[in-house]
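Issue: ligand-bound run for S-adenosylmethionine - logging full I/O for the record.

Environment: standard queue, default settings, no custom constraints.

Inputs:
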Amino acid sequence: MNPVAMGGGFDPNVPNAARMYDYFLGGKDNLPVDREAAEQVLRYVPGIPLGIRENREFLIRAVRFLAEQGIRQFLDIGAGLPTQRNVHQVAAEYAPGARTVYVDNDPQVLAHARALLQDSPQVRVIQADLRRPEEILDDPEVREHLDFDQPVAVLLLAILHFIPDSDDPAGVVGRIRRSLAPGSYMAISHVAVDENPQAARPVERVYDNASAQFVGRVSSEVAPFFDGLELVEPGMVNLHEWRPDIAYVPPELEKVKNYFLCGVGRIR
Ligand SMILES: C[S@@+](CC[C@H](N)C(=O)[O-])C[C@H]1O[C@@H](n2cnc3c(N)ncnc32)[C@H](O)[C@@H]1O
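Outputs:
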């Protein structure tokens, strides 16, 4: 894999997972190479933009829920390019004074995040890789901003499906979980390919040369990421089923099986 694909620098010829996500969300922070790769993915999974919008809605509901539980510290790993209603902005609405650290391994995400998100003393942005969680947990800026003796909410939203089994994603989640004080929470979302297993391999191939490599997992492979957490109701469900604000279900989602799973769990 080339250094760019490992998050080592900017190359306009390499599709970038964060910019492809931005394109799926209807954003403008993407290049032709990203749009081309994203369009290839859409050929196999046309419902991706809807899933991604539901993921952002889950983020908002989860952060609000966590603020309501008294959480005042957020560690958002795999933060992505800034968009509307980022974690610290939602947190500020429900828990003024809450502190947030954004983590990503993509230099371009970091540049945007530093420019757009570090608009308050409550926010820090650091470059680190989830595959080496100790680097995040021991980072001096993280330690200065967040008090790990107090509850912290760790958000792993739409990132674990970029961590291959060879990097032991369940082990990574476990190491983070064990570093958190009782009363902390983890929120996780992860694409599930139950609905469309035949699309998994072609989509993985599109991401093979991108800045992060997608791993298609079915729900039984996603469930272990929640091990050791006391899942709050309704448990691990599809994004639109997690504590929806209104009873409306988009017609496109009425009959789908597992497409994008999520959950929030408490640490005892
Ligand atoms: C699909 S975006 C998700 C953004 C946001 N969390 C959300 O759910 O809307 C995934 C992000 O994870 C980042 N990422 C991928 N692999 C990573 C790793 N090993 N360490 C840190 N960040 C990573 C990518 O750069 C990208 O910004």
